[in-house]
Give the backbone structure.
Amino acid sequence: MKKTSLKYFQVQTDIEKVIKDINPGLMNHDADRELLPAWLFVEAVEQAPIAISITDKKANILYANQTFSKVTGYRLDEVVGQNESLLSYKSTPREIYYDLWYNISRNQIWHGQLINKHKNGQPYLAELTVAPVQDSSRNTSHYLGMHRDITESYAVEKNLSNQKLLVESVINSSSIAMVVLNEDNKVVLDNQQYKALVTDLDHSEPAEMVLELLSVHLGPVHQYLIDNPQGFNSLEIRIESNKKHRLLWFSCSGKLFRNNAGDPDSFFDQSEQNYLLLSMSNITRQRLHQEEIHLQTLKAVLAEEEQIRSIRETLLGAIHQVNQPLNQIQAAIQLMEQKNEQSPLLVDLFQQLEKSCEQTVATLKHCVPEIAPSTITPINLNQILHEILMLSNNKLLSNGIVIDWKPDSLLPNIIGAENKLRMLFKQLVENAINALEKSKKPERTIAINTLFNDHRVMVLISDSGPGIPENLRSQVFQPFFTTQKMGGMQAGMGLVMAKEIVHQFNGNIEIDQDYQDGCRFIVSFPLIDQNDYNRYEL
Ligand code: FAD
């Protein structure tokens, strides 16, 4: 392929001249000894899709190819003999030229970006490589310049990085913690709020903790999102932060999106990866506000329920007390009948007494108020215990009692009636406070632990009080038994009520026989399938 135009001969002659100067052996026209024909070198440079120029040591242009003309706008005859500085837009910092010359004059290749001026006066961004060309004696005789216009690709790249910056600053200024996780749950992107969670939750990777809590509701989260591409929204989780034993609430949303991995393996293989975008909004403040209102309502509800129970217990106590003389009167009547007692007045008097006692019992029974049936729902005992501690806060503070609250953050729900469980734990906590009030020990601690063990949800309430003597432990669950010398008819019914409630949910309550430092009640409930609600008669 030989061109015959005048321009071609001119170009070929110029290049041949330069190449001859550099390496005379290469341009030997003896076809027998030639490795590659000279015209091939000329054509390769001439047609190369990059702007190529060859200069002398002062950057005076000796040759430029077709792409050079396309990129700069100058014809070959317009640039030959001109200095490369013809292309300078005069806004490139001088240090860049200094660096260029510093390198090439030391026989090193220079690569960088500078702003060039097109023949029409317009600036363009050039990516330039300048390489020294050495002659056969290894002396630099010329420079080879190669550049391309990267204005558009730079604009695209800049737009992209601007957009990335914009997205990042929007994400970072959000009050919601956001994190993107790959299929191995490794964090690939996060924002400032998420980073702050590391300190707030005292956990090096908060997402791990959140995913674990979400999986209690959703099962494995990635799988859930594959099955439910619409994702999940506003799913609330509570986290017991180890730090300062704070309780935090988050409203979480999650969605999967698919993306190409950026590694070379995925360049031709367009297989996509699933990424999970998880956002966590801290709703603790709203929750605390709600909780405050909720606690006020609870206080009222529990006070009412307690009053009803107290009336019930007082009346049941009265019935119990009236039943004692009644039993004696009935026994006396029976005895008189057996002995064929001849004193009708006495028999009559006893019978009247019996009747009057029976009427009193009937009246009292009639007055015993009913406890309203409760609805059963899935319940997190951590929440119930937290509420009870909040409700008992004043009593705990005024008695200088330290609470050692260790909830299991992954405690599963049980099925139960909220108010009944509140009454149960309120009773146990109040018993512990009462025991500590009377204790002479300097240490005043109530420890409350929740845990999930052997398919049972367990609550351990331990106090550092005097404990219950071993011989009385089996009696404390019997009606009207009390270790306190306080009198009052309702005394001794609290643990009866507690046991009754625990048994309603197939649970178990016992005193830990091995606990030596005071008294420890162990309450446990089996995990129940939520479909089994109806089995419970409440
Ligand atoms: P100048 O006065 O030409 O030079 C500025 C500084 O460059 C000087 O202070 C000095 O530090 C250094 N310098 C200049 N000439 C020499 C020299 N002969 N020896 C040592 N140091 C020297 N420039 C562009 O703007 N666009 C290009 O596309 C471009 N392509 C080039 C391709 C090649 C092969 C070579 C060798 C140079 C190229 N240059 C290019 C650099 C160009 O020659 C100028 O140095 C530059 O344009 C600055 O020009 P100026 O008139 O602003 O400053």
About this structure: The chain is about 45% helix and 25% strand. The longest helix spans residues 284-338.
